[in-house]
What we know:
The structure is a single chain. The chain is mainly α. The chain has nine helices and two strands; from the N terminus they run H-H-E-E-H-H-H-H-H-H-H. It has two domains: 1-87, no CATH class; 134-192, Orthogonal Bundle (Helix Hairpins), CATH 1.10.287. Helices cover 47% and strands 4% of the residues. It has a two-stranded antiparallel sheet with strand order 1-2. Helix 7 (134-142) packs across helix 9 and helix 8 (151-165) runs antiparallel to helix 9. It starts with 5 loop residues before the first helix and ends with a helix.
Amino acid sequence: MKLDSKIFDSIRVKPDKKRVEQGRHPVCDHPGCNRPGTHRAPKGRDREGQYFNFCVDHVREYNKSYNYFTGMGDDDVRTYQKDSLTGHRPTWKMGVNRQAADGPDGYDPRTNMRANAQKRAQQTPRPRQRKLLALEKRSLDVLNLPYTARGAEIKARYKELVKLNHPDANGGDRSSEDRLREIIQAYNVLKKAGFL
């Protein structure tokens, strides 16, 4: 058995740190340096995916002097930066490839969409009706009103029904008292819901 093998080193209780680091990492790519290259640095433009392996000191030195755009003119740099907005993918101006957008018989679907949009813009907008809750529908039914009733119409019907069903208007007869309670509750529900 060899005493200086990698396997024997990793079995020891306290492996030699310098030797283990050198075994795990490649040697620094800086000329004349034999420390482990623990840090990766890009090799440059047109060599994407390729890296140098440097030690800490040499990677700092490399990063200070690194410039991706070295050797490129100002116009080339601007073009590169503009292309990076779209991920360097090809783009076309709107409407350039109009022949492909047209149908087989010259029909352009965009003209139809424009015409529909213009029609919608010219129409007077209808106010949106909110969906009635079950309690609100029941309250309108108690007052014998349509579901589209609002404000003054509800108040007028409420006053009319209270006068008809009030015990004082019926000579003290209490038989319509339950109906009067229903009417008052329905009116209060509609009032809280914002119909008035």
